[in-house]
Design brief:
Oligomer: single chain
Shape: globular
Number of strands: 15
Strand order of the largest sheet: 8-7-9-14-15
Number of helices: 4
Largest sheet: 5 strands, antiparallel
Distance between the termini: 30 Å
CATH superfamily: Creatinase/methionine aminopeptidase superfamily
Order of helices and strands: HHEEEEEHHEEEEEEEEEE
């Protein structure tokens, strides 16, 4: 396995600052979600928040591996059946929609990454349950982060809970290490792994991000080359935090400033 970067306390402090910017920005964006708002408007709110905080938006620096072009937005705004990498646009949100907001930021050269799915107006009880299960799956994955724990414990905790609740677990897109670059080793699947994986070490930083569907786990990519959707058109939810492994346990780096980390 490729070596996983071990970050110093100073590195993690920079990532915490990037994470707080993201946490604060997610609060602002979620507050702006309502019927009639466009995802481009949400993107502008996020861009202003990140800039005013003295951080740099990560996603416009991400280059598509085959298109060779940068991601065309500060946030990923994925609506309903869109799982991840939705491009902000003039599309107006409607009551009953859900929108997954994914944000990355850089502070002093270090990245953080987080996401949450937000209801637009009144949603069905079934879709509300999807959001609740996905957020709880993230919480259960984070609970497994501690020195010496095996990587597969995170994946198994997410898989076990989501499977019992009857959700489709996206397999093609996974969590990841994070630090000086947005995507570092290790990969963190949201489904059970065949091997235990390496033991977690203090100084590791992990972006844990369950993506669950009301339908099957199958996905496809739209013609824009970025947006990933459910193959069956069922709604999808996405929750994510960047979490550091510390000598005593874990540190959630992407909570807003007014939340205990």
């Amino acid at each position: 396995m490729t070596r996983v970067p071990v970050h110093s306390n100073e590195d993690l402090q920079s990532m915490r600052r990037a994470g707080a910017v993201i946490g604060n920005t997610l609060v602002l964006v979620a507050q702006a979600v309502e019927p009639g708002v466009t995802t481009a408007e949400l993107d502008r709110i996020a861009a202003r928040s990140i800039e005013e905080a003295g951080a740099i938006a990560s996603f416009p620096l991400e280059i598509h591996p085959t298109l060779g072009t940068a991601f065309p937005g500060v946030i990923c705004a994925s609506v309903n059946e869109e799982i991840v990498h939705g491009i902000p646009s003039d599309r107006k949100l409607e009551s009953g929609d859900i929108v997954s907001i994914d944000i990355g930021a850089i502070y002093q050269g270090f990245h953080a990454d987080a996401a949450r799915t937000v209801a637009v107006g009144k949603i069905t009880s079934q879709v509300r349950r999807l959001l609740e299960v996905t957020e709880e799956a993230l919480r259960r994955g984070i609970e497994k982060v501690r020195p010496g724990a095996r990587l597969y414990e995170i994946s198994a905790a997410i898989d076990q809970y989501a499977s019992v609740k009857g959700m489709g677990i996206v397999r093609q897109y996974v969590g990841h290490g994070i630090g000086r670059t947005m995507h570092e080793p290790p990969q963190i699947p949201n489904h059970r792994m065949d091997t235990p994986g390496p033991p977690l070490q203090p100084g590791w930083a992990l972006a844990i991000e369950p993506m669950l569907n009301l339908g099957t786990e199958k996905t496809r990519v739209l013609d824009d080359g970025w947006t990933v959707v459910t193959a069956d058109g069922a709604p999808s939810a996405h929750f994510e935090h960047t979490v550091a492994v510390t000598p005593k346990g874990r540190w959630i780096l992407t909570l807003p400033d007014d939340a205990a980390a």
